[in-house]
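Quick illustration for those who missed Monday's session on complexes.
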Amino acid sequence: MSTVGHFIGGEDVIAGSRTQAIFNPSTGEQCGDVELAPVATVEQAIANGKAAYPAWRDTPPAKRAQIMFRFKMLLEEKADEICQLISREHGKVLHDARGELQRGIENVEYACGIPELLKGEHSKNAGPAIDSWSEFQPLGVVAGITPFNFPAMVPLWMWPSAVMCGNAFVLKPSERDPSSVLYIAKLAMEAGLPAGILNVVNGDKEAVDTLLTSPDVQAVSFVGSTPIAEYIYTTANAHGKRCQALGGAKNHAIVMPDADLDNAVNALMGAAYGSCGERCMAISVAVAVGDEVADELSKRLQEQLKTLKVGSGLDNSNEMGPLITAAARDKVVSYINGGVEQGAELVVDGRDLVVPGHENGFFVGGTLFDKVTPEMTIYQEEIFGPVLVIVRVKTMQEGIDLINAHEYGNGTCLFTRDGEAARYFTDNVLVGMVGVNVPLPVPVSYHSFGGWKRSLFGDLHAYGPDSIRFYTKRKTITQRWPASGVREGVTYTFPS
Ligand code: NAD
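Prediction with nicotinamide-adenine-dinucleotide bound:
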């Protein structure tokens, strides 16, 4: 069984430290080990980044972009290999892994535009013979810490923009599915990225804390659960670093009485059960406006759930794979038990699903609750599994009030045919990413991604234009070249 190590200064590194098992969630079997980097290994990665940074900072952006173009081609060429690695360790179905990778490639495409994106702002004759401009300089060594659920895409949200801005990067991916990340880092080297500009260290809290406290790390991007995001943000800030920390979610979709219900049900099936609900943009609450809508929604979702094809992620004919670990499966099952105990109506129960030939896989079937109320734990907390709950309200305003009162504000959606209702909803809902008849309103790569409330700690969102601001510092230069021979008197007045 192979041990996954680290990638530092363009070399594979095995530190001989603690390890953690990696599982194939579809079979429940261990498929490898990952090393958990000790402090010295993380420091080695930071030192490599620091050494490689000065020459990279001075490399023209257009030359850096050429490397990204080659990298994008390699990602496309090697897509099948990458998706196999994702599916084997994460469990998501291959076609879903391909979608994830495609979204990651779009972030690489965005980063290819760096010569344009880094153009500064210029003012000629800001004063007599005075020109002034702002330019955007890289920060130095920056770090990224990423979750298990998009092992290829979320790292690609971060480091392509960061290194195109001229920084060196240390990435600490999820220790639960680390292989695709290392494979992709090597493709970046093959495309021409200099050694030390992208370093990958696998690990747990010890590795993360080393990044958060190192004086040589200037900024930290994090994506993961809210309690860890809050810890990352406060610790990074306390150590003088710029930080953006994206957290968890509980995304509601309001279904209006005028909605096209067939489309809404299809959209909800994909948004709730795709990737086994392990998406920060998954819809986990369907808010039905009126009992008639709720009854019909429940009935049609039950019918569709009967045909949901659950099985191994490596079989592309499946629609939903397993959860990431046995612990994740047990946690989802305990949420379902809790929902029953608190009085919600369990209309489809996925707890006892057995996938023939994969009896030890970490599967839970698609689960549906009706008549869920806001004080129930299954309403309040992020379950991160294939569990959709229906909450019944009387008006759209009641639905918006529910969403606005929730601690999370990542994504949301309104299903309607009414433009006035849609406009009111997008104006008044306190959520960062809003869809109208679009259940997963994940922004395209040339916008930026981020939630509101406790779904994001920090000011700037991930990828897109915000990432260029996050990974650079503005410097404003004011320059005067008086004509030769001109002598100016002394002035004690503040310049105006
Ligand atoms: P997680 O918070 O457990 O782990 C995320 C990262 O933090 C991993 O690299 C992990 O090694 C590290 N980590 C875990 N515990 C730590 C600790 N005590 N100290 C320091 N570092 C620690 O999240 P996960 O289970 O990998 O991912 C699922 C979560 O991520 C869900 O809550 C999901 O909503 C969220 N998520 C959010 C977004 C978003 O854009 N908002 C995107 C994807 C996932």
